[in-house]
Amino acid sequence: MAGVQAHDWMRVAATQKPVAMRGLTLLWTTDVGSIADIHVYFDVAAVKAQLGAAPKGLAPIALAPIPTGPPQFLDQNGREADNVRTVRTELDALENSESMYLGSLTDDVEVFTLDRTEPARGAEDARLYFNTMHKAIGELDTTIVSGWGVEHFAIVEYWLGGLQWGPLGWIPARRDAVIRLHVVDVNELRDGRIARIWRYDNPGEIASPGP
User: Global pTM?
Assistant: First the structure.
């Protein structure tokens, strides 16, 4: 979504600045075609950063370019279960096995997140992510809520949980606070390994958990 902030939003006074929200929406439909459930993911802090109201510790974020190409439509091809299984292995390994985690990714893996203009790239960045998560979250747990495969992609909705031991990005440390972060990863697979990840989450969920 793109527009101009003409009114107050999320405790940010109207700035009249252009803003773009990158996000992901999951829709569940009934047999008759009506929408039964909607899950929306976007990074509130990343949007505030475009408005000059970034939380302390979050770098300014440039206005994201608006996609101009046509919508993409993908069909299932029979290998979807294998794709989801690969991602499940990756998320299980994130809990306790650096070698298995890295082994599920290609050496040139790219991870796109909403709070960075450039993706994390390669095994070293993936190793850094693994170690950062374990320094920040004790008893790290990943739980998959839903997963789907489409062609050479796997879309997995899950949550990360544990005890916060240290700062997590711009989120300050809250020693032994129980945290949960809901995430969706869109994974592109190549030769049985994950080559690209588009990650959608809202880290402010940790800083200001809802009910």
Answer: 0.91
Residues 6+ apart with CB under 8 A from 58: 45, 46, 49, 115, 169, 170
- Regarding whether 113 and 21 lie in a shared domain, the answer is no
Q: For 191, how many CA atoms within 13 A lie in the half-sphere containing its CB? A: 6
Same domain flag for 105 and 148: yes
Same domain, 123 and 171: yes
Report yes or no on 137 lying in a domain: yes
What averages of pLDDT result for each successive group of 10 residues across the chain (211 residues)? 94 93 94 95 93 86 80 82 94 97 98 92 97 95 94 95 92 87 97 97 80 44
Domain span at residue 27 reads: 2-50
CB 147 within 8 A of CB 84: yes
Count of CB atoms situated within 10 Å of the CB of 122 = 16
Q: Which residue has the tokens 């990756």?
A: 90
Q: How many residues does the chain have?
A: 211
